[in-house]
Design goal:
Length: about 200
């Protein structure tokens, strides 16, 4: 976006655009509302949490997920708009991934729902590339010097999701209990998953 209007409140811009499209009979407001509701309330980041919990408990699923994220995620029934190609990035004790869309706000909707406002913020988008360690610290995630940080830039072609580290002390938890621990931020890479 390079027009002068790009700094207007995105919510206002979206509203104006929706009104215009509805007025021209191109979209139906009820359809738009149901779409937003579905992604805000029904999808949310809980789908992604289920994917992570499955990967933590099923090594074969984990291998499939890392080899072909889109297909393995679809196995659990999660697919659709803005999820045509999802690549899953595995965190290790020595390697931490963080995801951004430097251009706009590309995000894997079928697993994480709609992006949070900070993800769309120009400051996050530019700074996390230049100074990821500092930005993560501002999120409350302080990583040791022995942990390498890799930043991945989501686009309309490929959307990334992080497979966070399974926290210690969770050996006895069920898949469902594990899923409840997984946060949206941990799947974007600006947080780690904490134990119960
Ligand atoms: Fe984008």
């Amino acid at each position: 976006m390079t027009t002068a209007t790009s700094h207007l409140d995105p919510a206002l811009r979206a509203e104006a655009l929706a009104s215009l499209l509805a007025e021209r009979g191109l979209i139906d407001q009820a359809t738009v509302d149901s779409f937003i509701k579905a992604y805000e309330q029904s999808v949310g980041p809980m789908n992604g949490a289920k994917v992570v919990a499955r990967a933590w408990t099923d090594p074969q699923y984990r291998a499939r997920l890392l080899a072909d994220g889109t297909t393995a995620i679809a196995e659990l029934g999660f697919k659709g708009a803005q999820g045509e190609k999802i690549v899953v990035l595995e965190n290790t004790p020595r390697l931490h991934h963080v995801v951004v869309c430097t251009l706009c706000s590309c995000y894997p909707w079928p697993v994480l729902g709609l992006p949070p406002s900070w993800y769309k913020d120009p400051s996050y988008r530019s700074r996390v590339v230049r100074e990821p360690r500092q930005v993560l610290a501002e999120f409350g995630l302080v990583l040791g010097d022995d942990v390498q940080i890799k930043v991945f830039d989501s686009s309309s072609e490929v959307r990334y999701m992080v497979l966070p580290l399974r926290p210690p002390g969770t050996e006895r938890l069920t898949e469902e209990e594990l899923a409840a621990l997984v946060t949206r931020d941990s799947m974007v890479g600006v947080a780690q998953v904490s134990g119960p």
